Predict the structure.
Amino acid sequence: MKSYFFKRVILIFFTAFIILSLTFILMKMLPPTPPAGFPAQVQAYYRDQIHLGYMMELTEINPSLGDYLYKYEDTFNITHYIYQTPILTQYWNFVVNVVTRWDWGTSTSISVNSSAIAIIGERLPVTMELNVISIFISVPLGFLFGIIAALKKNKLTDHVISTLVMIMISIPSFITITFLLLILAYNTGWLPSQWPSTGASAAEQAKAFIIPVCALSFGTIAGFTRYTRAELCEIMSSDFLLLARTKGLTKTQCVIRHALRNSMVPIVPMIIGQFIGILSGSMILENLYGIPGIGRLFTDALTAKDYNVLMVDMAIFTLIGLAANLLVDLSYGIVDPRIRMGAKK
């Protein structure tokens, strides 16, 4: 298990390295966007880029380097021209800056000359709170409805739950949040229609979580319910459950003592997989509800062509996804000790 774990960790870093390398090179091939802000801010940005090795400064025009990005005159009336360095040189400097100084560059549009890492650090907690709360709500409710449906198989309760599950799985989360906003915010005014500002009261901030958390949770609850019901129904028809019933155990006792634990093998890893699904879905919801998270930041940076912020945001989504895949694989061996990853044959 330890050998498998270390191999997977190395593979995660290798995969992340390839993804981020391709992302950096492809983004640098796009036309550069001049930074926003006052002239002093613009000059400060270009000086930082020169310091990081992404640009170079010349005192004369060099057509072989393409079009210059920016020019200015110093106090001695000498004109300075700023050019991009070759992409492979930028890539090497990027790797060196990240590895040695953890410097991912600065923002050009979102918050001019602010560290891209600092911007992500401000936005990440909100997104993680939404996702964690959604998972903590979805998992117990999904298990509960799945167990009830399995115990009431082919009865009215099972049919009602199964119908609701199919409806909720079929409706995208952005449609769900639209209806919730229409009913709970605009029509009744019970909940805020937009994410409150930083200075809002604790009660307003707590209310603001209800609509996005519900929109993220409904589909996940339906997914857990469907999988739990399917696994329990399959296991309850197995031979060892029939033996337990012949020994005098009730149907409920069989489910709680035996069937539920065996059904956890495929279901528990699904929890981590659903977390990644919620994280991806929250990107759309953050834009609709005005939530200042990394999902909304990704689309804002993409629209504003703020490539440095976009690069860090991409790195966060990549690392979270790869780490979750590792946890999924490890969870099989934790839930069922008979499963041993990487064991010798």
